[in-house]
Design goal:
Length: 141
């Protein structure tokens, strides 16, 4: 079961994740949209703009990483405990271009103690363009 982004930011299920995203200026400037957040999962979307392409006329990997990282952050903060990245990496599988719409879906693999492991798939249409894995750590904020 997931909450739509229209749920109140101040309280309720997944409040920390929703509040964190509402205050995330960097993600907002990139045009990242929160589609949904649930227990250990999240889905976001971003349209590749002209400012996001590199000299090969393909999406700069840093922007794909930022989308995946934001989605990872939402998923690992969905349990209403503040969490941060302890480690993460990405595999770029297919290039994308200006105007492409990227959708990132994060899934929790494991939670143990203060740690978590999450996978994020980034797709453009039916094609997976990147795979991201992140380790989280619950922290006191």
């Amino acid at each position: 079961m997931t909450d739509q982004v229209s749920a109140p930011v101040e309280s309720g299920r997944h409040a920390i994740a929703r509040r964190m995203f509402a205050d995330d200026v960097a993600s907002r400037r990139l045009g990242i949209e929160l589609l949904e957040v649930g227990d250990g999962c999240a889905t976001t979307r971003m349209t590749v703009s002209a400012d996001m392409v590199n000299g090969h006329a393909i999406t700069h990997g840093g922007f794909v990483f930022a989308l995946a990282d934001t989605t990872f952050a939402l998923a690992c903060n969905s349990h209403d405990e503040s969490a941060v990245a302890a480690r993460c990496d990405i595999r770029y599988l297919h290039p994308t271009r200006e105007g492409d719409v990227l959708v990132a879906q994060a899934t929790e693999l494991r939670r143990f103690g203060r740690n978590g492991i999450y996978d994020v798939s980034v797709s453009c249409g039916d094609t997976v363009v990147a795979e991201f894995r992140g380790d989280s750590r619950v922290v006191r904020m």
